[in-house]
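pasting for the record
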Amino acid sequence: MTGGSGGYLYFDNDSGCDDLQKSKLETAVWDATTLASYASDFPNSGAGARGRASGIFYMGPDYASQQTRIAGNLKRAWQFKTPETKEYITVSCKDTKNRCAERVDGKSVGGYAWTYSGWVYYYHYITLCPPFFTIDTLDTKIADVEKDLAGGNTK
């Protein structure tokens, strides 16, 4: 189990995650909550470059009618990693459901979620597949976006 302020990643003893994978998952949770933090006040994100970068994305033609819902979802995602929250994300690197080899629309599966119904509780898991561990960190991706935007590339 790892944590800092807020939510925790929980690795079962048989999670199959090595130390490098655990470290990458911790970085991914940090990155996701950081991005959600910047976006939690969307569309009024902060003046910093990261605030602008997190707000420069296409929400779709029905954005105005969904703005409150979208903002609420982003705020809840950000609040997962606050001192008041002591929730767990149970993660595994073991392909328990044999889904990692599947392809969806010609693309590799990066991970999948599933639920186990126990005697009293439901247990929710996220299984990460090998392609997940090859994705860029938030710092790398934001640097790429900022470089492209500075060069006039908005694709």
